[in-house]
Amino acid sequence: MRKSLYLLILFLLTNFKVSANISFPDNATIVVVSDGMLVDGLQMKAWEFKSKNSLSENVDFFTKKWQPKSDVFTHKQLNEWEVLNAVIGDVIYTAKLRKVGNSYTSGYIATSKEPDNRLQLIDNTLQGFPMPSGTTVIREIKSEDGGKISSTMILDNNFSVKSNLSFYKKYYTKYNWAIDKAAYTEQLDNGVFMTRNGPNNVNITFMRKKGRTFITVVREDVK
Predict the structure, then answer these.
(1) Which one of 113, 140, 158 terminates a domain?
(2) Contacting residues for 187 by C-beta, under 8 A, at least 6 apart
(3) Nearest Cα residue to 10 out of 113, 209, 152
(4) Backbone angles phi, psi at 19, to 5 degrees
(5) Are residues 13 and 64 in the same domain?
(6) 197-213 burial code (b ≥16 CB/10 A, e <16)
(7) Which of 100, 112, 88, 83 has its CA nearest to residue 29?
(8) Are residues 55 and 102 in the same domain?
(9) CA distance 147 to 121
(10) Which domain of life is it from (predicted)?
(11) pLDDT of 140
(12) Are residues 103 and 168 in the same domain?
């Protein structure tokens, strides 16, 4: 599951039931990356995509499949990536593709929509994570893996690494969580905080960059 989260975060730099009907080229290799996640409040399903067809052939394939049925269709180039987005009914379709070698294509395909009742319950359960005043949520991914529900958040604020770490140490100590690690570097530009309460745990890393602190939080709760 951690690998799936990592792949999905790279892709976004955006039990699951959706009415989306995805068609893939015949020679494509498809691996499920996400089969039940909430990304910034949207229910998402995503696949890793590899094809022996050229990049232009794959872009043409998804354009022909999606554009005639879409209410909104866009095709943009972001560095080496070709990004296609289509809104069809209540589902958003996304393809992010790039050329590999002389003629191969790799990338990600995804669908997203409003969450169903099961994922909405997970969303509600993982609400209320503590943050220093003025903190901005850049990205949040929530998921379920067996008996665990988890949230991965990317935050930022203008407090120092030391101040942020002190905030979380005081908060979790107040609620009698066990502190496994609370440390920052000599240069005060990086830090780590690890805490647990029975089977539940929270791991936080801090990185200071350009006058702001970027915070990555991984929270796991056992149901």
Answers:
(1) 113
(2) none
(3) 152
(4) -80, 5
(5) yes
(6) eeeebbbbebebeeeeb
(7) 100
(8) yes
(9) 14
(10) Bacteria
(11) 86
(12) no
Residue 22 vs residues 58, 70, 108, 165: alpha-carbon distances, Å: 14, 13, 13, 44
Cα–Cα distance for residue pair 33/30, rounded to 1 Å: 9
| Residue located via tokens 């209540």 | 90
Q: Is residue 90 predicted with pLDDT exceeding 90? A: no
Residue 120 lies in a domain: no
Whether the CB-CB separation of 111 and 24 falls below 8 Å is answered with no
Q: How many domains does the chain have?
A: 2
Domain that holds residue 188: 126-222
One domain for residues 157 and 100: no
Between residues 18 and 183, which one has the greater pLDDT? 183
Residue 4 one-letter amino acid? S
Using a pLDDT cut of 90, give the percent of the chain over it.
Answer: 60
145 has pLDDT over 60: yes
Sign (positive or negative) of CA dihedral 124, 129, 134, 138 = negative
* Complete edge-to-edge strand list for the sheet that includes strand 104-113: 72-78, 81-88, 91-100, 104-113, 42-51, 29-39, 136-145, 148-157, 212-222, 200-209, 190-197, 178-184
CATH number for 140? 3.30.310
Percentage of the chain exceeding pLDDT 70: 88
What pLDDT digit, counting tens, does each position of 151-168 carry? 899 999 999 999 999 999
Domain closes at, from 50, 81, 113: 113
Q: Could you tell me if residue 118 is inside a domain?
A: no
